[in-house]
Amino acid sequence: MDAKGPVLIIDDDERLRELVVEYLEEYDFTVHTLPSGVKAVETVKTLSPCVIILDVMMPGKNGLEVLRELRMTSDTPVIMLTAKGEDTDRIVGLELGADDYIAKPFNPRELLARIKAVLRRYDASAITNAKTTPPTISAGGLILNISRQTLMVEADELELAPTEFRLLKALMSKVDTALTRDQLMDMVWDKDFTAYDRSIDVHISKLRALLKQYETHAKRIKTVWGTGYMFMGEI
């Protein structure tokens, strides 16, 4: 498999780590593992993995906490490992920015298929963005810096979490246009999570809380009842 970096597995189950490592190495992946999420952020910065396999149920710092920390600085694809039937963990994981999930126990072949699918989406998205994305998007007096993933508001440069950045980019690319939650899900995650489209509301709330600090922009993102959301060029 031609990957741009190693696979990182974060799971407290030693036997599972060994089995997955053995299986993935048969397909020419380089695999690194961690028994907990304590050093996850610094390891990701050092390793630059192509994908992270992250267990939810771990002692101490659980996978959702680790994912929240990772998404502050990294948009590396993350596949969550969840307990079978734990829909809440799955939904929260997607809301926090996970790219996919797989329920335990799982077939290593299915995990491999999901890794390949996530990498294909990630690579396709990167190629498309490189060809078509301008260095900045300006709308309503705000400037979104694409390469830095920051937002200029008045004299302040604000850092955005990866999911909030992609959501604001989608909205600012369609100024004064109402976008449905389904459309936003497709634009932000590039996959169909319509069953959980209310996760968009969580990220909209975070963006609004950020803009609320600035009186001029506090109402920049408008709720279009029965439809979705709109970025207002003029308020």
TrEMBL record:
<keyword id="KW-0804">Transcription</keyword>
<dbReference type="Pfam" id="PF00486">
    <property type="entry name" value="Trans_reg_C"/>
</dbReference>
<dbReference type="InterPro" id="IPR001789">
    <property type="entry name" value="Sig_transdc_resp-reg_receiver"/>
</dbReference>
<dbReference type="InterPro" id="IPR011006">
    <property type="entry name" value="CheY-like_superfamily"/>
</dbReference>
<dbReference type="InterPro" id="IPR039420">
    <property type="entry name" value="WalR-like"/>
</dbReference>
<keyword id="KW-0597">Phosphoprotein</keyword>
<dbReference type="GO" id="GO:0003677">
    <property type="term" value="F:DNA binding"/>
</dbReference>
<feature type="modified residue" description="4-aspartylphosphate">
    <location>
        <position position="55"/>
    </location>
</feature>
<feature type="DNA-binding region" description="OmpR/PhoB-type">
    <location>
        <begin position="134"/>
        <end position="233"/>
    </location>
</feature>
<dbReference type="InterPro" id="IPR001867">
    <property type="entry name" value="OmpR/PhoB-type_DNA-bd"/>
</dbReference>
<keyword id="KW-0902">Two-component regulatory system</keyword>
<protein>
    <submittedName>
        <fullName>DNA-binding response regulator</fullName>
    </submittedName>
</protein>
<dbReference type="InterPro" id="IPR036388">
    <property type="entry name" value="WH-like_DNA-bd_sf"/>
</dbReference>
<keyword id="KW-0805">Transcription regulation</keyword>
<feature type="domain" description="Response regulatory">
    <location>
        <begin position="6"/>
        <end position="119"/>
    </location>
</feature>
<feature type="domain" description="OmpR/PhoB-type">
    <location>
        <begin position="134"/>
        <end position="233"/>
    </location>
</feature>
<keyword id="KW-0238">DNA-binding</keyword>
<dbReference type="InterPro" id="IPR016032">
    <property type="entry name" value="Sig_transdc_resp-reg_C-effctor"/>
</dbReference>
<dbReference type="Pfam" id="PF00072">
    <property type="entry name" value="Response_reg"/>
</dbReference>
